[in-house]
Predict the 3D structure of the following.
Amino acid sequence: MKLTLAIVVGLIALVAALAYALRLRRVRSEAAPFERPSHAPLDALLGEHVRAGGVDYDGLARDGRLDRYVATLATWGPESAPGDFPTEASRLAYSINAYNALVLFAVKRAWPIRAVHDVRGLLEPKAGFGFFWAQLFRLDGRWINLYDLEHDVLRGGFEDARIHAAIVCASGSCPTLSAEAYLPDTLDAQLDDAMRDFTSNPRHVRVDDATERIALSAIYDWFGEDFEAEARRRGAGESVLDAIAHFADERTRASLRRARAAGYTVVYRDYDWSVNLPHDDGA
């Protein structure tokens, strides 16, 4: 019986490995890169296509600037051009912009789709595999997928939970995508603004008096350790709710104080993976 179980487990692992190998594909932009590398093209196209809390993907699909910016990122970055990225802020801004741009590029290539999970292959070991793991993008002289860019480069390289409010995976439950590129000189203020929106928006943090619950985005569950560490760094406390209260607007802080004092239960919302089209900011 044990031998049979081991064989079954081994076969499952083999199938998963084969599925991973079969779904890996290298994604290039066929556009020529910009002659002068900068984040200005991303800033311009975000300003044009990001509105009402979402993205106009129909318009983005016709915009060649995104392809050219992605082509620029392929050979420009902290590793290939270290002189352009002398500070941690410059490197973090680059990585955030790269993640957001590659997500937009991936959606554009597959457009029209209803959800990022629609990007699939013949085999799919887990939901979202085709979008986050199997697509390899050329970035700063190497191939990388979106999962590794988020977890190894961003989370692994920078101790700042505000990153989770700034990177957007093109889905309805994601934080609001900024309508401007992140820049080294303004990065700290931009991250504060992103975090303030993420902690104050009722789509992500909501006190429900009828059910006596504090309903949070699943992101606060998935990356709870990051937010707890951020609360400690800020001297705000030890918990995810402490981190949220530190950045949230006064209305949200007051609601959280009241709910916590009354012993409301914390629950995490189901994640909406449908593409982040423009919407109102209701809960």
User: Anything to note?
Assistant: The CA atoms of residues 17 and 224 lie 29 Å apart. The chain has a mean pLDDT of 93.
